[in-house]
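BUG: 3D viewer hangs when loading the predicted structure for this chain

Environment: internal workstation, default settings.
Expected: structure renders.
Actual: progress bar stalls at 90%.

Input used:
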Amino acid sequence: MKYNKPSEDFAGMDMGDKRLDKRLEKTVEMMTEKSQQSILSSCGTKHDAKAFYALLTNEKFSVKELQENGAKSTVKRIMESGIQEVLLPEDFTDINLDGHEKPEGLGYSSNHTRGIKTHNCLALTPEGVNLGVLVQEYETREKAKSEVSKDKRKKRPIEEKESYQWLETSRKALEMLPENVKGIILCDREGDFYELYAEMLTLKASFVVRVIHDRKTIDGDNSVQQLRRTKSFGEVEVSIPRDTRNNTSARIAN
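Structure tokens produced before the viewer hung:
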């Protein structure tokens, strides 16, 4: 499996303008190298930052095409790796744009934050090597808080809830995998809802979800208690960083 530089993921994009293609390649390389920094800091100069913003607003630039090329490169690496199983962790990420005063029509990513909510699904080898982003969806709310009551929100069809994105992302990720590769969906507590389980069972897909609801099993037992009584298959040592908000020190957990 050969991988030289990040911009190769989008080498299939052709905007019909060599300058734009070159700008995309240069920007991807710069922002990958300094991924934790702002666009200006990543680009290095105001000229490069301005050129990047101009690329984003150019009618020849397509976010959808960018995502499709990135996903194809991820699938290619899965095939080249020769693995028979691939881990598919997915989760929401809020892009906080509260500090930006000029954007027009900017919605909300949560009840208190202006920005964009993205749902990402990565492809990892069983050893944890990241092969790339397989699926990415994004959305934004028009209003910070829904005017619909909590009771009515619960009764809405799953297709009208934000949690539906877990279903859609899981489906797309599994559909994109090569036929000889088994995908294992990994979700945190937001994925603990009945419709996701039903869909995974329908697709005969393997999945791991961190539970938040202590449901009844077919034996009439509580699921959490049953899990605690079940013998574990193995043990993993995890390094947990310091949490300043909760005033907890860094530690090792098993």
